Amino acid sequence: MNCEVAHERIVTAAYGELADEQMHELDRHMTSCPECPREREQLLALKVLMDAHPVVEPDANLVARSRLRLEEALDALPPLRWFERLGQRITNSFASLQAAPVAACLLLVVGLGTGSLGGYRLAENRAVRITAARGAVQPAAASMAGNAAPAEIANISSIVQQPNSHMVEVHYNQLVPQQIEGSLDDPSIRQLLMLASQNSASAGVRDDSVGLLAAECKAGHGCKAEGIRDALMVALRYDKNSGVREKALQGLEPYVTEDVRVRDAVLEALLYDGDPKIRTAAINILEPVQGDTSVRQVLNSVANSDRSPYIRTVSRQVLDRVPEIQ
Amino acid sequence: MSDDRKVLGERIETALEKLTPRERMVFELKHYQGLRLRTIGEMLSTTEETAKNTLFRATKKLRTQLAGLR
After folding, report:
1. Closest residue in A to B6 (Cα–Cα)
2. Domain A187-325: which CATH class?
3. Which structural domain range is residue B54 located in?
4. Burial label, B39 (beta-carbon count in 10 A; 0-12, 13-18, 19+)
5. Chain B: nearest CA to A13, how far in angstroms?
6. Whole-structure pTM over 0.80, yes or no?
7. Based on the structure, what is the number of domains in chain B?
8. In this complex, do A46 and B63 lie within 8 Å of one another by their Cβ atoms?
9. Per-domain residue ranges of chain A
């Protein structure tokens, strides 16, 4: 037993509340500890001192008279106005909450739980309603389209509920399939071909559009517009289909000498394209600008580090020929 | 002699006033009324252990306050 526990037990023992077993332990401790007997003496001295000043019990008649006067004084008080009563009630509520922090915490936890559950249920119901509404819109769209080809809903632009009724006005946009026919020189056709070249859904559409644009460029049919060139460069750099990239490369061939951006795109293809066929084609396309410093640097790099031995050899041969060309 | 008792009474009263209401209540119920700690705990809606600790704190404070008188 340590002295701290012993001090507590001395108090309990002094007031006759220590169990026999603990009393023996305390006695054993007292024999071996020089401090604790002094503690007991001081406590007993305090008890004697406090006994010398007993609490004076009030006279019973005085208590009765005081209680009577208190009740009369309370009766004489004017009734509280409503806002005073409200303030008092709020103060009492806060006081009771302060007195019961555990209850306050429980209330908070229950409130949060109920709120979360309510929110979850609300979101669940809303999701069900939206699903049902979507299911209803599709047949409606079909019925609106009548015998024409079914149109896809692009988006809902606004919803207005008519007052005091179940009628709702929904404004929505449809994707209506259309077709256009025209010459390859037609700007609107070219615009559509450029859009098609970025159609990520269908590789076939991309292949067709890039093939047509590249053929126009190669044939020199008014392919000066930068939009077409940009579309071909984007296809060469990012298209996943090697066939599409190859066609884009062929379409860019006429611009390697005059457009530095095209040259850079072809150099990138030579360095990073995963298909050896495209890298080989890029070397051939770069032939007119093989004396260019940037091209020679890339060819050097390819000659040293390309994965394909054939491409490394071709690059070296081109580099060997460069002085002759210059 | 009467003056000494008066001074002593005032010192004790001051020391009692320095206790918290709960400590004073527990001390008076135990020391002057002789109630058991378990009963005091029930009266104050708390446990016997808490009542015992409160009594310990009260006696400690009183001893500090009244140290010069012993």
Report:
1. A53
2. mainly alpha
3. 2-69
4. middle
5. 11
6. no
7. 1
8. yes
9. 3-49, 100-140, 187-325
